[in-house]
Write a structure and sequence with these properties.
The protein contains nine helices and 15 strands. With about 325 residues, it is an alpha/beta fold.
């Protein structure tokens, strides 16, 4: 527990807060807390947090968490009274997430998962803050047999020298950091293993297939699936993922805990639904896999159901409709520019 006095609302630090998941998390946390959002815009986007900048309980700091961060020395954070109140919670999501630019971000990915995570854990130690770490299903390694569900006790089988090891092994090491800081410093830490998530604010033209499907369908262009006809995955709508993250943060569960959908969905089915919703003339085309967009295991979420009372509730149809509405608006903005 924090030894600092809370004046009115908790001070919460969100790293990677301008990203897809991070910005939705900021929205939710601001309902009851004050939020300091950290992002360096490697893959985050200012448009994701534009609507929050005028909120007096929100402050954005452009910063790379791999570099030292002194919150008390920043004039723009004086309103948070950090010297007296401290930081109550840290949500650590900072990590480049662009399939298209994966190779050029490899070192930044490693640093975010190592030095960056350590820097944020040191802040947690300083203020006795709760630390909620967003890990990934990638820690389990590549997908195995179709429909096989994996639970948190599985040690995984990632290759430490593979082409995608900066992310997979980076996420595994970041979990090791969190676990050891918990053991040594008695921190209240949580580890979330996030499975594939979709929804509004996904970045366009970055190799994430869902937003690219929508944009191409609006233009009646080909919808390209990077993988064979049977390429499938677990996909969870963003509001369900945020609900799960908040439930973990408010619980006594330290994790690791899987958050995602247990239902395997073929990307060809998703593409077909998008074409139908938009009444598009697009056709589906199959191409080679992208390194970071490969099949992964399905989550066994029984722990989340039993210990948190959590399960995804947004249907694929409803989630796609909401995502399409947002991406259509984003496309209009891009064309105006």
């Amino acid at each position: 527990m924090s030894k600092h006095a809370i004046f009115d609302k908790k001070n919460i630090l969100v790293t990677g807060g301008a990203g897809f998941i991070g910005s939705h998390l900021c929205d939710e946390l601001l309902k009851n807390s004050k939020v300091i959002c950290i992002d360096n815009f490697i893959t985050g986007d200012e448009r994701n947090i534009d609507h929050l900048l005028s909120n007096p309980n929100f402050e954005f700091i452009r910063h790379d968490i791999a570099e030292p961060l002194d919150l008390e020395a920043m004039p723009e954070l004086e309103k948070f009274k950090i010297k007296f109140q401290g930081i109550q919670e840290i949500y650590n999501l900072a990590c480049p997430a662009s399939p298209k630019k994966f190779d050029e971000n490899k070192i930044a990915t490693l640093l975010a998962n190592s030095t960056g995570t350590k820097n944020m854990l040191d802040i947690a130690v300083k203020y006795s803050a709760k630390f909620v770490h967003f890990s990934s299903s990638a820690v389990y390694g590549p997908g195995r047999q179709s429909n096989e569900k994996i639970n948190e006790s599985d040690a995984g089988q990632a290759d430490p020298v593979s082409e995608r090891s900066s992310y997979d092994e980076g996420k595994r090491f970041s979990e090791t950091l969190v676990a050891n800081y918990r053991q040594v410093y008695k921190l209240d830490t949580k580890i979330l293993r996030v499975f594939r998530t979709y929804g509004p604010r996904m970045k366009l033209n970055e190799g994430h297939m869902f937003p690219d499907f929508v944009i191409n369908a609006l233009d009646n262009a080909e919808l390209i699936i990077h993988g064979g006809e049977d390429f499938s995955s677990s996909i969870c709508y963003i509001s369900d993922m945020i609900d799960g993250a908040i439930k973990v943060a408010e619980s006594d569960v330290s994790g690791p805990i899987n958050l995602g959908s247990e239902i395997e969905v073929r990307f060809a089915e998703v593409a077909g639904k998008i074409i139908k919703i938009l009444d598009s003339k697009s056709k589906i085309k199959y191409d080679k896999e992208i390194l970071i967009m490969t099949p992964l295991c399905l989550p066994d979420t029984s722990k989340a159901r039993q210990e948190l009372g959590w399960l995804p509730v947004v249907t694929l149809q409803k989630g796609l409709e909401k995502t399409i509405d947002d991406l259509r608006a984003s496309q209009r903005l891009m064309r105006v520019k």
